[in-house]
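Structure (tokenized):
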């Protein structure tokens, strides 16, 4: 898929507008185990299917931070690029809430809305994006976040 590119003026015009939904991403046990290995977080609710069966979840669940880390991947599906960008960086999160567990084998996707965008300083655009991560077939989302990024143009 070719990423949609916008001029700075058009990008600034996205304030308050929905950006779209990403493709679905499978969160299987292999992905959860890889995340546990990288982070050193081997809590049984993530990596031990036998013990996790006895929890209210009934199975292993993804780490909340694994789900959060998928925002970058999801953003490539919906966030337009800005013509002339030299680089983009994460600036942080104003808020994040983990609302429902992502069970192993589930698929998730991000729903993105441009809450705010401004020129923080000459050549630096700050975007504040509201993201809701949906779980396929579930009424309650996995998480809701307000994500802030900087683009240097």
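Design, position by position:
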């Amino acid at each position: 898929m070719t990423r949609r590119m916008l001029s700075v003026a058009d990008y600034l015009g996205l304030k308050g507008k929905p950006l779209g939904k990403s493709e679905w991403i499978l969160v299987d046990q292999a992905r959860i185990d890889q995340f546990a290995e990288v982070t050193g977080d081997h809590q049984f609710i993530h990596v031990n299917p036998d013990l996790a069966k006895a929890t209210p979840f009934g199975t292993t669940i993804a780490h909340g931070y694994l789900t959060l880390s998928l925002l970058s991947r999801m953003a490539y599906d919906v966030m337009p690029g800005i013509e002339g960008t030299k680089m983009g960086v994460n600036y942080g999160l104003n808020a994040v809430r983990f609302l429902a567990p992502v069970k192993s084998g589930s698929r998730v996707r991000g729903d993105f809305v441009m809450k705010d965008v401004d020129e923080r300083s000459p050549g630096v655009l700050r975007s504040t994006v509201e993201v809701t991560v949906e779980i396929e077939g579930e009424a309650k989302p996995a998480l809701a976040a307000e994500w802030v990024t900087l683009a240097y143009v």
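Reviewer-requested clarification: Residues 29-39 form the longest helix (11 residues). The domain at 5-26+61-152 is CATH 3.10.129.10 (Thiol Ester Dehydrase; Chain A).
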